[in-house]
Automatic annotation (TrEMBL):
Domain of life of the native organism: Eukaryota
InterPro entries the UniProt entry points to: F-box-assoc_dom_typ3, F-box-assoc_interact_dom, F-box-like_dom_sf, F-box_dom, SCF_F-box_component
Ranges where the F-box domain occurs: 61-107
Protein name per its UniProtKB record: F-box domain-containing protein
Entry-linked PROSITE patterns: FBOX (PS50181)
Ranges of Polar residues composition bias in the record: 15-32
CDD domains: F-box_AtFBW1-like
Species assigned in the record: Linum tenue
Length: 425
């Protein structure tokens, strides 16, 4: 009968560094791949040790560290939106964390505080036109393009089902508001949550009347509001206008009238900055001049914000809001140029600062409206009546981002967020 061979017993390993073999990888050549001599290595096809052998081993086990929940939440709050949306499928506890109001607010603060170059801040360009429908582009692909006067091939667009009668009313904290027919829809394109507000109703329509809109955030009630302005001629004076204002919150879902607007609004859509909606307005206090009127969404009160002192042959000017700050694009009728102004401190007229002048390269200056100011690269994305373009401040050059056959389109830049307050998944 054959004798069973038993290997000699090895002395047990201790934690004393003097008796532990420490393999050296520094002096090994590139041909000596694999485990160092004397190390335990299970090659493919070799039998694994049994459970009893694993229990009897004296080698200390290594366990992955268990991170505190607070640290996990802090790490996740700095990630982009799309991975977080996928992470909701990991477990019920992860989904509960990512869907909580506290986490969503923390993630929103981190996203706003980050610059456009940070990976956790993802910004996209949304365009609505009768020809294209509703399309969302990656903003990073715009900056990487280096062609000249050509239509760029952007990342595959994300098309949203939408009817022809749609008007975009601008973004706020990643939410987009649109007027669809006679109603309003608010949705987050990052995770497709949406809601439809009750139908807006006003008094009898008077010939010559017009409507303006706004969408922003009320920090006091933690609610997002849609604002509708209806300007109509007064019955007692055919040259004077009265502007009624109604507001509807995503939480209350009730339209209610507030104090009338001061003056006649000159912008179709209000610009969001510092918790207020802003419109270029005229005939404030019956004075025939143009100024800026703001509506504080928390207190629902109005305030006049003085435009810059242009000090040049300026004709028309337009009001914009980029990255929660007010901007004004003024036009010089003498040299066919424009200047971009930024209000550094909201509501302080002396804080208006002229950033640069734009030469229009033969294009009518009234068509240029800034969409995004990229200060670190010295570029500005503009929209004209027919196309989008990037203007290089340093080189004074223009790169067209789209073909010039667009017409009657809306375009906004929004950042991806998890905000879903008042929305339905």
């Amino acid at each position: 009968m054959a004798r069973r061979f038993s290997p000699p017993k090895q002395p047990p390993l201790t934690r004393d560094s003097s008796t532990l073999p420490i393999p050296s990888f520094a002096n090994r050549s590139s041909n000596e791949l694999g485990p160092p001599p004397g190390s335990e290595f299970v090659s493919p096809g070799s039998p694994l040790p049994s459970s009893d052998e694993a229990k009897n081993t004296d080698r200390p086990r290594r366990h992955l560290p268990i991170l505190p929940p607070e640290l996990v939440a802090e790490i996740l709050a700095w990630l982009p939106v799309r991975p977080l949306v996928r992470f909701r499928c990991v477990s019920r506890s992860v989904k509960t964390l990512i869907s909580s109001d506290a986490f969503i607010k923390s993630h929103l603060r981190n996203t706003k505080a980050s610059s456009a170059a940070k990976p956790n801040r993802v910004e996209r360009l949304i365009v609505k036109s009768e020809k294209l429908g509703l399309i969302s582009y990656s903003l990073g692909s715009l900056h990487n393009y280096r062609g000249t006067q050509a239509e760029i091939d952007l990342a595959r667009p994300e098309r949203f089902p939408v009817t022809t009668f749609v008007r975009l009313l601008g973004p706020c904290d990643g939410l987009l508001c649109a007027r669809v027919g006679g109603g309003f829809v608010v949705w987050n394109p990052s995770h497709e949550a949406s809601t439809e507000l009750p139908m807006f109703r006003s008094g009898p329509w008077i010939p010559g009347s017009f409507m303006c809109f706004g969408f922003g955030y009320d920090g006091r009630l933690d609610d997002y509001k849609v604002v509708v302005l209806v300007s109509s001629k007064k019955c007692d004076d055919s040259s004077a206008y009265q502007t009624e204002v109604q507001v509807c919150g995503l939480k209350s879902r009730v339209w209610r009238r507030i104090e009338d607007f001061k003056g006649v609004p000159g912008d179709d859509v209000g610009k969001v900055a510092a918790g207020c909606l802003h419109w270029k307005a005229s005939y404030v206090n019956d004075e025939p001049r143009y100024t800026i009127m703001s509506l504080d969404l928390a207190s629902e009160t109005y305030r006049e914000v003085m435009p810059p002192e242009f000090g040049e042959a300026t004709g028309l000017w337009t009001l914009e809001a980029l990255d929660d700050r007010l901007f004004v694009m003024s036009r010089n009728s003498i040299d066919c140029s424009s200047a971009l102004w930024m209000m550094k401190e909201h509501g302080v007229a002396d804080s208006w600062t002229k950033l640069f002048r734009v030469l229009h390269h033969g294009m009518y200056p009234g068509e240029w409206r800034p969409l995004m100011y990229i200060s670190n690269s010295g570029e500005v994305i503009f929209r004209t009546r027919y196309c989008l373009l990037i203007y290089d401040i340093k080189e004074n050059t223009v790169r067209f981002l789209t073909s010039k056959d667009w017409f009657d389109y809306d375009s906004y830049v929004y950042m991806e967020t998890l905000v879903s307050s008042g929305l339905e998944n």
